[in-house]
UniProtKB/TrEMBL annotation:
The organism of origin for this protein: Pseudoxanthomonas taiwanensis
Biased composition (Low complexity): 72-92
Annotated signal sequence range: none
Region (Disordered): 9-28, 72-128
Protein name: Transporter
Compositional bias annotation for Pro residues: 14-23, 93-105
Extent of Basic and acidic residues compositional bias: 115-128
Length: 442
C-alpha cells in the first residue's frame, strides 16, 4: 500500500479592516444641524397631533347629534417621512444581518391612528369631567347625576338683658344661645344636551335636617342650660335650568356660558310652622321656644342668571362664574313664630349675588383636582303683615364665603366619581360641606 503525505493548503491572508474615518468639525456641525431639525419636526408633529385631537372631538360631537350619520372616523395617522440615506463615503465590509426591533414612536407621540385616538380620549377625559362640573360641557347627550351632600352649621350668640352700673358692673340676665344644624341632601339630576350650544337641567333634592337648640341662663340661673331639638325631612325646592354657550374657546378667549334657572317652592316653607314654648320670664314673655319641625325649602319662587367661563391651559384649567338670584314675593297664612297667634302677611327674601373662581389640574387621564373660592352676598329680607307696612328683618343679610376642594376620578368610560369639600370662611357660611356625586353618561 502506497501512502502519500499531503501538506495542508496555505490559507490566503486577508487584509485588516479599514480604520474608521476621523471625525471632522464638518461632521459635528452636520450632526448638530440634523438634531435641531429633528427636534423642530417633533414639536411641529406634537402640535399637529393635538390639533387633530381637538378637531376629531368636535367632529364626533357633531356627528353624534346628527341622525343617520355614522360614528366619527378615526383620525388618519400622518405619513412618516422616510429617513434620509446616509452618504456613502466608503463601502465598509458588510456585517451579518442582526434582527432589528420594530421602531417605536418617541414618548408622548402617536405612531398610528389608533394611538392618536387612544391618547385623545385619555387626555380629554379629565378636562371633560372638570367642564361637566362647571356646566360648560355640551357634547354629552344625556347625563344622570346622583349626589349626596352633608352640611354642618354651628353658631353661638351671647344675649345680655340688663344694664351697666357704674360703667363696669352688669346687672341683669346673661344667656348663651347655641344652634347646631346637620343637613343631609340627596339630589337627583338630569342633564339633556339638546344641541352643541344648549343643555337643559333638572335637579330634584330630598332634604333631611336636624337642629339642636341650646340656651344658657334657663330659669334665671347663669349655669343652667336648656336644650331641645327638632327635625324635618321631605322634598326640597326643584330647580330647572338651562346652559347656553355664547362663545367657544379660541386663543385668549375662554368658553363662555350663560346660565339661567327657575326654582319652584316645592319644599316645606319655614312660615306657619308651630313653635313649642319651653320657658317664659316673669312678664310672660317667651324666653325659649323651638319650631316643631324643620323646613326643607324657601317657600318662594326664585330666578337666577349668571355667566361661567372656562379656559384650558394644559395641564391647568381656569374657571370662574358670577350671577344673581331674584326672589319673588310670597304670601302666607302665618308669618309669625308666636305659637298662640296667627298673623297672615307677605315675605320678600333679599336678592343674592354670587361669584367665584378657581383652577383645576388634570393629573392624568382619570384624575383631576380643583381649588376654588366662592362667595354669596344676600340682602336683608322684608316682611309685611296684612294691611301693614314693610319692615326689614334684622340679621337676615348674609355673607357666605367658602373655600372648596374637589376631586374627580373616572370610574368607567361612562361614570365619574366627584368628591367635594367646602370650608366656611365667614360666620354665615356652613362650618364645612362634604359631598359626593356620580354623573353617568348615556
Amino acid at each position: 500500500m502506497l501512502l502519500v503525505a499531503c501538506a495542508p493548503p496555505v490559507l490566503a491572508q486577508q487584509p485588516p479592516p479599514p480604520a474608521p474615518a476621523p471625525v471632522t468639525p464638518e461632521d459635528e456641525a452636520e450632526l448638530r444641524r440634523l438634531t435641531e431639525q429633528l427636534a423642530a419636526l417633533k414639536e411641529a408633529y406634537a402640535q399637529d397631533v393635538r390639533r387633530l385631537r381637538e378637531l376629531d372631538m368636535q367632529v364626533q360631537a357633531l356627528q353624534a347629534r346628527l341622525p343617520g350619520k355614522a360614528a366619527a372616523a378615526t383620525v388618519p395617522a400622518p405619513a412618516q417621512p422616510a429617513a434620509p440615506a446616509a452618504p456613502a463615503a466608503q463601502t465598509p465590509r458588510p456585517e451579518p444581518a442582526q434582527p432589528q426591533a420594530p421602531a417605536r414612536p418617541p414618548e408622548g407621540y402617536a405612531g398610528t391612528a389608533d394611538d392618536a385616538e387612544r391618547a385623545r380620549q385619555e387626555m380629554s377625559r379629565s378636562v371633560t369631567d372638570v367642564k361637566e362640573q362647571t356646566r360648560t360641557l355640551f357634547d354629552q347627550r344625556v347625563v344622570f347625576e346622583n349626589g349626596l351632600t352633608y352640611n354642618r352649621y354651628d353658631r353661638k350668640q351671647l344675649t345680655l338683658n340688663g344694664f351697666l352700673a357704674l360703667d363696669a358692673i352688669f346687672l341683669g340676665n346673661i344667656a348663651i344661645e347655641n344652634v347646631e344644624s346637620d343637613t343631609l341632601s340627596y339630589n337627583a339630576g338630569l342633564r339633556w344636551g339638546v344641541s352643541p350650544r344648549l343643555t337643559l337641567n333638572l335637579d330634584v333634592p330630598y332634604i333631611a335636617r336636624k337642629t339642636v337648640y341650646q340656651k344658657g341662663g334657663a330659669g334665671g340661673a347663669a349655669a343652667a342650660i336648656a336644650q331641645e331639638h327638632s327635625s324635618g325631612h321631605g322634598l326640597g325646592d326643584i330647580t330647572a335650568s338651562a346652559n347656553v354657550r355664547l362663545f367657544n374657546e379660541r386663543g385668549w378667549r375662554p368658553d363662555t356660558v350663560l346660565n339661567v334657572g327657575i326654582t319652584a317652592p316645592t319644599g316645606r316653607e319655614p312660615y306657619g310652622i308651630p313653635w313649642t314654648v319651653l320657658e317664659r320670664d316673669d312678664d310672660d314673655f317667651i324666653r325659649f321656644a323651638v319650631p316643631d319641625e324643620q323646613p326643607t325649602g324657601n317657600g318662594v319662587w326664585q330666578a337666577s342668571v349668571g355667566l361661567s367661563a372656562v379656559k384650558t391651559s394644559d395641564p391647568a384649567i381656569l374657571f370662574a362664574n358670577a350671577g344673581m338670584t331674584y326672589s319673588k314675593r310670597g304670601s302666607f297664612d302665618d308669618i309669625d313664630n308666636n305659637p298662640v297667634t296667627v298673623n297672615p302677611g307677605d315675605v320678600k327674601l333679599g336678592n343674592s349675588y354670587y361669584f367665584g373662581a378657581g383652577v383645576a389640574f388634570a393629573f392624568n387621564e382619570r384624575t383631576s383636582l380643583s381649588i376654588s373660592l366662592s362667595d354669596r352676598l344676600s340682602a336683608r329680607a322684608r316682611t309685611r303683615y296684612r294691611g301693614g307696612p314693610w319692615t326689614k328683618v334684622i340679621g337676615s343679610d348674609a355673607n357666605a364665603a367658602m373655600f372648596n376642594l374637589g376631586v374627580t376620578y373616572a370610574l368607567s368610560p361612562n361614570a365619574t366619581l366627584v368628591g367635594l369639600l367646602g370650608i366656611g370662611l365667614t360666620p354665615d357660611a356652613p362650618d364645612f360641606t362634604l359631598g359626593f356625586k356620580v354623573p353617568y353618561t348615556l
